Amino acid sequence: MASASCRPRPDMRRRALLGGMLAAPRLARAEARAVRVVNAYAAGGTADIVCRLLFRSLAERTGRAYVVENRPGAAGTIAAAMVARAPPDGETLLYDATAFAVNPALFGPKLPYSAREDFLPVYLSLVTPNTIIATDRFPPRGVRALIEAAKAAPGRIDAGTTGIGSAQHITLALFNAMAGVEINHVVYRDAPTLRNDVAAGRVDLQVSNVPGTVTLLAGGKVRALAHTGLAPVAVLPGVEAVAETLPGFETFEWNGVFLPAGTPEGIRQSLNQALNAIAAEPAVAARVAAMGGIAWPNAPAEFAQFLDRQYALHARVVRSANIRID
């Protein structure tokens, strides 16, 4: 799904850029109030883990408090609507993920804010492929075998996700379209229930992301059938890419930081430089890599271009798969 420009730069360029950003000026500390970081997702998930990792390190680096406030619900729109109404003074941030770029197509005019006009993209903090996880009781052992099984029993294989219009739902819809199959989408209210049902064999498949999959595999009872990246995933050795069977297939989940529109450009640029420097710190970079996350230096303009591609891509998938929230 992502173009080559969405993926990390070569290591040599990455090291050079990171080295420069480590010297970026720190944000001003003087008598500053705590910054409110509104996270659109629940505690304990990938977005929450990465958000807290970054802003805890940023607080240590700058001496300013960053308070993460989880406000999940309605595919991230509750948190985004709150930040859209916040004063543009740099003291309220939004930490959001892939659904931010899906929601304009999913909700249309019902969306209580404009994703493009009410926010300033600051920093793309994480990209990670999605995955297809299978219960050990599910016979297919690869993508080709999965497609053959789905064609032999249309509408009889179930795949669970935790949300309509989520990155994982988009992955399933695109897989159905490109493979010419009909795998059922089963929506769960929460990740623990879905994980339990997959482990118990009550649902055949789960569409997840790499960090969530690493955690699940540690508990046994499930296996990673495939990932949706274009390159091998280090933390999932031996797991094939969907693209090996369906050329060009790529989906991923991302996380990013936003400010309310109207925030002074100097605040946005300073925050971007500080977050780039934090991501380059060895302890932070190692933690993200261990989760299966990919991060690289990026400026607000690059993140904005990335989002433009995401808006267009998800609009096409939502429209072609007729994905709706009733």
UniProtKB/TrEMBL annotation:
What is a single Pfam family found in this protein's UniProt entry? Answer: TctC
Q: Which SUPFAM superfamilies match?
A: Periplasmic binding protein-like II
The highest taxon in the source lineage is Bacteria
Q: Which Gene3D superfamilies match?
A: Bordetella uptake gene, domain 1, Periplasmic binding protein-like II
Give the protein family: Belongs to the UPF0065 (bug) family.
Q: Identify this protein by name.
A: Tripartite tricarboxylate transporter substrate binding protein
| Lineage of the organism | Bacteria, Pseudomonadati, Pseudomonadota, Alphaproteobacteria, Acetobacterales
